Amino acid sequence: MGLFIRRSVKSALDKSKLATSYALTALCALLIAANVGAFLFFPKVAAPLAIVLSNVVTVLLMLVAVRPINSLIQKGFNDKAKELVEKEREEQELRDKVTALENRNRELESRLDTWAQTSSVPTAVNFTFKVETMTFDKTGYIVKEEPLERFMADPVYKLSDKKGVFDRLSKWMDDLAHPGMKKVLYIGKYYIKASIGIDFTKIKFSVDGGALTFSGVKFTKLNDLAIQADPDEVSHCWLLNEDVDGYTTINQNDVYREFTEIYARIREQEADKALEGEVEGLCEHYTAIFRSNLAERFPGIGFCDNIEESTATWYSLKEHFQDERIYPVASNMFLMADVLSDLPGRGLLPE
Description:
Elements (H helix, E strand, L loop, with lengths): L1 H7 L6 H27 L5 H73 L10 E18 L17 H13 L3 E19 L4 E5 L2 E5 L4 E5 L11 E7 L5 E3 L6 H41 L4 E3 L10 E2 H4 L6 H16 L9
Parallel strand pairs: 4-8
Antiparallel strand pairs: 1-2, 2-5, 2-6, 3-4, 3-9, 6-7
Helix pairs in contact: 2-3
């Protein structure tokens, strides 16, 4: 509405035009007065002619005065329109402020209501999480070279099963073509990356004569972490022919293909088991330190690793940690594990 009014009266805002309108209107008024005075002072002019002339002059003067009078009217209208637009703007600002205050008030009322409802419920914090204290990361290569004859009679490697006519013939022909010693060469990459920490959801406790005993307070492997495979990594398992002159070639006979596959798989399993053993040893080491520090803070507490052999009643820590006897110990467990995870050099162990 305000925009329409401003556009419709824009031409009336020119000060020079407004002054001209005042001057023309005053001049027309003066001429009308002169017209009336002339006929008053010249009564001898014929009455019919005087009336006609007076009306004609009046009409002409009014036609001249229409435009300036219209400008003056528009000026008055514009002033009123500006006043209305200003009032409308002020009223809109007030409405916006009222709306904003109402929304803010509603939001605060909702927060107060939510706070009142939540504060009225007893607090129940559960240890439903795991605390990761370190990362075990190790990568390297295993290289093994062993004589083939060492595995000829071992049923695990399937060479002793090669008793068919075709297998015997293949071995005999291969021995003729490649006299000398046969060796198996294995080159394989091993890697492990795992997070180590304490799983508080598995901790339980028992109370026997006032003494607290805990089970599950130990470091374990929490997760196997993803490892980005190296496209350039080397992985080979070959059967080698070594003649009397020391010249070595790779044996491609199909009769030994199953053997090399089994050999490689067993070496991989050995590496995985060795790495898992290192992780277990590391967990046992930190478990001993953790329990020792905890026992120093709370003399009298004990630890049990096989609750199946115990006759005591065991309770889950996460469901009863608010017990006055349990809460201080449980809180210190968490704090000690959390501090250990932040110690420099603990996050990533050297190879």
